[in-house]
Design brief:
Chain lengths: ~475, ~270
């Protein structure tokens, strides 16, 4: 007895009502939910007497602004921008301080190596390779993380994040995805692998897959330093706005772009290989609570900052050594690194990057944190500059290697959109149990990153902007 | 689905037994089946354990991984089988838990459904109660955690609530055993004494009501209308959840042949 018999009277009526379901602006199903809640609200007001109504009305009023149609989105953008601005403005000085201390110590190390008359290659691998990369990762990553994570944890503890999910639910529904995806994206800001695992909270397997495949479009903290460093360097200050404000604006725009891609890809997946209807989101908005400052700092500094930094350092040390070796082993007149970069250069130029940048992204597959250090080291090994003492030298290095605004812009775009790191891919495989979906998780962002950068680069070349 | 449809003379009884067996429920003799629904974390399990005195065993829904607990208790020499449904916020959305709860309340034909609400957040909890009341008239609302509500200085006008909703309302604090005998009494008078209820139907906005009344004649022409609330069925047809329509269709297909035949006629009539 087929249940899909089109002659089944019930299904017949169902397909007849298709026009009713689609005719009005808001779907009937949504109106039904709205009506039920309107009724329960009225009924509750009648039968429940609150003696502490003063306190609750104060909290209700906050929510009237935070999740209102008018103020919800602007407030979200403002908070996001503020967090980035505080991160960038606050990280500049300590970054420079850490850099100068660590690089001064590099000279001390070099001096020791000379004292014991260590062979040049050992000094190269250990000091110029490993130590310098470690120093860079620490100087570039530690201050932004030490500011960003506590701020983010503060918002989390206040109870703001679920409200963001509430605000964005409408957008996710339009993309035929689940509003809970927003929470997995928030996790993705910390670490995409964590974001992928967090997709378990989504009940529908279809929507879970969408959340897993698109999590990569949220820049994780491994990519934030790259974005922040490049944005800070290439946003010149104007009369009216300070450089850090401009950089924060740039990062906010990039994050929005990532979110836009999340929606676009979710929507496309829902319309093609992962067809289906969105399920509704039931979310309990927790009460606003004053965060416990001590707990916030402990959790964000110990659990996140130190954890992430350690992971970065563990990957960065061998990667630094490897890069140094590649840069100092010659085939004929060309170092291996220059050779690889040369091979990649035509493709990279077509998308507005150069061979070294693309190679750094490829070598950065184990962890995105090491992209900039690898890039820097490969530039430095080609002999343009041998020493630098402060973060601001970075701009000189990049300009000396032919960077333009287009290179900077496309590097940021590529960092935002390109393939997930190895850990994230592994998590995808564990969560989906499918090589096919893991491959999709790799290929979708890769294709998008190449296409977007290609279009922008070609447009810039054609219009003679570069 | 292989069902042996035998004697049709007492078809409804047979049918409800068959449906229950699909849900893994076997009643012994004169046992009433009571479903226990509620949002997550409202103390539903506490109510369950308090009523059954932990005489429970866990059964599995056919084909599902979610466990459901069953237990029994006796009250005035009658035996009641209590089925603990998964905690859900509504019956509209599409998680596995919500499907199970909805399908059981809808097709398992329990003799009564107790909806457990959290007294400290009635507004959110009432949503589920109203949806259950749309499916079934045999609903008892248990407002649990009244001890916490007292602590939070909330006072609830239970008389007003009962008058508005038209079903029995029983305030409880299951943790302390408060109100449980009232709950048992309410269940007894509903399923044994067949006390009537007048469940409040949700007042929908004009747009929705119009869509419903446009559909209602067609729905009422189906023989299915005698088994489920036609207005509720019309609303589900207006949802865009085709899988549930298929579930209802399948449910109709398990009806005794005579009913199926008349349903076919109904179909031709509509065509």
């Amino acid at each position: 007895m087929s249940t899909l018999n089109p002659l089944d009277p019930l299904l017949k009526i169902y397909s007849d009502t298709e026009s009713v379901r689609l005719s009005s602006g808001t779907p009937i199903a949504d109106r039904v939910v709205t009506d039920i809640f309107a009724y329960t609200e009225k009924l509750t007001q009648r039968v429940v007497l609150r003696e502490d109504c003063l306190q609750t009305s104060w909290k209700d009023n906050i929510d009237k602004i935070v999740i209102s149609r008018v103020f919800g989105y602007p407030l979200m953008l403002l908070l996001l921008g503020t967090v980035f601005w505080l991160t960038i403005a606050g990280a500049n000085v300590p970054s420079a301080m850490i850099a100068s201390v660590l690089f001064a110590f590099q000279d001390v190390l070099t001096h020791w190596f000379q004292l014991v008359q260590a062979p040049a290659w050992l000094h190269g691998v250990l000091v110029l390779g490993m130590y310098r990369t470690l120093a860079w990762v620490t100087a570039v990553m530690l201050p932004p993380m030490a500011i960003f994570f506590p701020l983010f944890t503060l918002l989390e503890d206040l109870g703001y994040l679920p409200r963001v999910a509430f605000n964005l639910d409408n957008m996710f529904k339009k993309a035929n995805a689940c509003g809970k995806q927003c929470l997995t994206m928030c996790m993705g800001f910390g670490c995409n692998a964590a974001g992928v695992v967090a997709a378990r909270i989504i009940d529908s397997p279809r929507e879970r897959l969408i959340a897993i495949l698109t999590n990569n479009f949220v820049p994780c903290n491994g990519r934030f330093p790259t974005l922040i460093a490049i944005a800070s360097i290439f946003m010149a200050s104007t009369l009216f706005l300070s450089q850090s404000l401009l950089a924060a604006g740039m990062i906010t725009l990039l994050v929005l772009l990532g979110v836009a891609f999340t929606f676009a890809v979710s929507w496309t997946l829902s319309k093609t290989i992962l067809k289906g209807e969105p399920s509704s989101l039931v979310l309990e908005l927790p009460p606003y609570r004053l965060p416990k400052v001590g707990a916030v700092f402990y959790r964000s500094l110990i659990d996140r900052t130190i954890f992430v930094l350690r992971r970065a350092l563990v990957v960065a040390a061998p990667a630094g050594a490897l890069t140094w070796i590649l840069a100092n082993v010659y085939i004929g007149n060309v170092s291996v690194i220059a050779y690889i970069a040369g091979v990649l250069d035509p493709i990279a130029k077509a998308i507005g990057l150069d061979g070294f940048i693309l190679m750094a992204f490829i070598l950065g597959l184990p962890a995105n944190e090491i992209v900039v250090p690898i890039l820097l080291m490969s530039y430095l090994s080609t002999g343009q500059l041998t020493e630098f003492n402060s973060l601001f030298e970075l701009k000189k290095v990049l300009l000396a290697n032919g960077w333009t605004w287009l290179t900077a812009f496309n590097t940021m775009l590529f960092a935002l959109l390109h393939w997930p790191c190895a850990t994230t891919l592994l998590s995808m495989y564990k969560e989906t149990g499918s090589k096919k979906w893991t491959f999709m998780g790799f290929i979708i962002p890769t294709v998008i990153a190449f296409s977007v950068c290609f279009i922008i680069a070609q447009a810039a070349y054609l219009l003679g902007l570069v | 689905m292989k069902l042996k449809l035998g004697d049709h003379s007492n078809a409804p009884n047979d049918h409800s037994r068959v449906m229950r067996e699909q849900f893994g429920i076997r009643t012994t003799g004169e046992q009433y089946v009571i479903a226990l629904a509620g949002n997550p974390n409202v103390g539903k399990s506490t109510v369950f354990n308090a009523l059954t005195g932990l005489h429970q065993h866990t059964g599995n829904w056919p084909g599902k991984t979610v466990d459901n607990a069953q237990g029994h208790y006796s009250y005035r020499n009658k035996s009641f089988l209590l089925v603990d449904l998964p905690g859900t916020y509504s019956l509209l959305a599409h998680s596995v838990e919500e499907e199970i709860a909805r399908d059981f309340i809808c097709f398992g034909q329990p003799d009564a459904t107790i909806v457990v609400l959290d007294a400290t957040s009635l507004e959110r909890n009432l949503n589920l109660a109203l949806q259950v009341m749309e499916i079934s008239s045999k609903v008892i609302i248990c407002v649990n955690l009244i001890d916490e509500a007292r602590k939070k200085k909330l006072s609830i006008n239970f008389g007003e609530l009962e008058k508005e909703l038209g079903v029995p309302i029983v305030p409880t604090a299951a943790r302390n055993g408060e109100g449980l005998s009232d709950l048992q009494k309410a269940v007894y008078s509903m399923v044994v004494e067949k006390k009537k209820t007048w469940p409040k139907q949700i007042p929908y906005s004009e747009e929705v009501e119009q869509a419903i009344s446009a559909l209602l004649p067609k729905v009422e022409a189906l023989s299915l209308a005698s088994l489920v609330n036609p207005k509720w069925l019309a609303l589900r047809l207006l949802d865009s959840d085709v899988s549930f329509i298929e579930t209802i269709s399948r449910y109709a297909a398990t009806q005794p042949q005579k009913t199926v035949a008349s349903q076919r006629q109904g179909g031709e009539f509509i065509l």
